[in-house]
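Homework-ish question, so no full write-ups if that breaks the rules, but can someone show me the predicted structure for this set?
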Amino acid sequence: MKIVIAGATGLIGKLLTKTLLNSGHSVVVLTRNAELPTTSSQPLLHFDHWDGKGEGSWHCHIDHADAVVNLAGESLGANRWTKSRKRALISSRVDPTASIVNAMKAATAKPRVFVNASAVGYYGPVEEGDVTEDNQAGDDFTSTLCVEWEQAALGAMAFGVRVVLLRSGIVLDPRGGALQKMLLPFRLFAGGPLGSGDQWLPWIHREDEVRAICFSLENERVSGPVNLASPESVTMRDFCVALGKTLRRPSGLRVPTFVLRALLGEMADIVLTGQRVVPKKLLQEGFKFRFPDLKDALENLFRKNGTLGR
Ligand SMILES: NC(=O)c1ccc[n+]([C@@H]2O[C@H](COP(=O)([O-])OP(=O)(O)OC[C@H]3O[C@@H](n4cnc5c(N)ncnc54)[C@H](OP(=O)(O)O)[C@@H]3O)[C@@H](O)[C@H]2O)c1
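A: Not a homework solution, just the prediction itself:
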């Protein structure tokens, strides 16, 4: 397949690109990074520049592509959520999505499938009960963001494109994202749950995240929202205990809710709230998680090659 990926230079995108190339697919990376060359020594890999907003010569890649994956968006956890930061977080997702959909509209041969990132934040905080793809959206900031993002992506359905919305939990990768941020206190013997510790923490091993994206690309029966989270639900406390055991560090130093609120403001919602997410659609379609168990996932990420993930 010829697959165009926006946001391919990020945590998930790099591994996805590598995996697709290893499987013999050709990949076009859309990036804002002008320093990346448009040519590559790898014959199946190409780069093109875009601004993530408007039109451009990159449109030609969407024409006759088999699939488009959109992972573009500024990091939710990088800065406090001021009004202008919130606008930037939304527009860095909705604008790239809308411009890809516009490119599809203009294409003479449309892609068969559009896989667009979203997040379990769609559901907002849910304290009790399973959360499947049938659950309604919440009403906090991340819910609003995900609803707008998904609406923009669903525009591609008007041209007969199969649209998949990846409602992903925290992708476990020591090289970046939430897990990397949690590592330092653990390594300094000061790790522990954030907030009460009772909140659910939907997680997925990086390999399963990428395998599930590939599964969604290839499996024509997959469309609409898809929960990307391990079938094993854990709380923040369970997660920290498992992480402490893997790293051979204590895990009991809880950071109280009021401290996180004072430090992070509304952004603390990312870690203080959660949902018991069930990957109903993936399981129904026969997807097999390689790491359904948290202990195994962490062992794999940190103990492989005896590196403790460094
Ligand atoms: N990692 C997780 O745990 C997780 C969980 C749930 C959902 N997600 C979502 O999945 C997507 C990919 O996650 P990730 O962790 O791989 O993200 P990441 O490492 O932050 O990478 C995102 C990519 O988006 C591009 N980008 C950033 N700001 C942009 C803007 N204003 N306009 C256009 N492109 C922009 C960048 O590519 P260039 O600089 O090359 O343009 C960047 O490499 C994100 O949208 C994220 O919200 C991630």
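Now go work out the reasoning yourself. Hint: The pocket of NAP is lined by residues 7, 9-13, 31-33, 52, 71-76, 92-93, 96, 117, 119, 168, 170-171, 176-178 (CB under 6 Å).
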